[in-house]
Design a protein that fits this description.
171 residues, six-stranded mixed sheet
Length: 171
């Protein structure tokens, strides 16, 4: 099973085993009724049932895990929370998940088909799409302004790369 990063347990809250969590998502309100999450312990994803979750504004929430109290709760601080990819809410229009478009054709408005989306990397808070063009790597900033159309039916990303950017890689 594949998982996606949901957030981080940041600190204890009170003395009843509740924990502050940071939800690293654009729409934290979509996760206000979670029943369980997976915590990454070493290299294993361990399920934890949620007794209660209370959204606290912004991307913060207070979570109480079932059968986790006091000191046991404190031991979970700084642990990463994950959910199965199958739990992601579906996106429509020009919004997409990075994992969703891997292997798709990338079509630039000026240059046409520039290759296949291979991966996304985070460089100083700026995601970059890696495109494979016949063995050459093309790096495209993954910002909303560049993506013109997400064609799920034909598995293509239509972009408008900044002028001259693609030429740098193809010379």
């Amino acid at each position: 099973m594949d998982y996606f990063y949901l957030g981080l347990i940041t600190k204890p809250f009170g003395y009843k085993g509740e924990l502050y969590v940071f939800l690293d998502t654009d729409e934290p309100e979509k996760y206000g009724d979670l029943r369980a999450v997976f915590l990454l312990e070493g290299d294993e994803y361990i399920p934890y049932m949620i007794e209660s979750i209370e959204m606290r504004g912004g991307k913060n929430a207070v979570v109480k895990f079932l059968d986790v109290d006091g000191e046991d709760a404190k031991s979970l601080v700084k642990m990463e929370m994950y959910l199965p990819i199958s739990e992601l809410p579906p996106l429509t229009g020009n919004k997409f998940y990075y994992h969703e478009v891997m292997g798709w054709q990338v079509i630039d408005r000026e240059k046409g088909n520039i290759g296949i989306c291979k991966d996304f990397i985070d460089v100083s808070n700026q995601p970059i799409m890696q495109v494979d063009f016949n063995g050459k790597e093309i790096l495209i900033p993954a910002v909303d302004d560049i993506f013109e159309e997400v064609d799920r039916e034909n598995k293509t990303l239509h972009i408008c790369a900044p002028e001259g950017l693609i030429d740098i890689y193809l010379e």
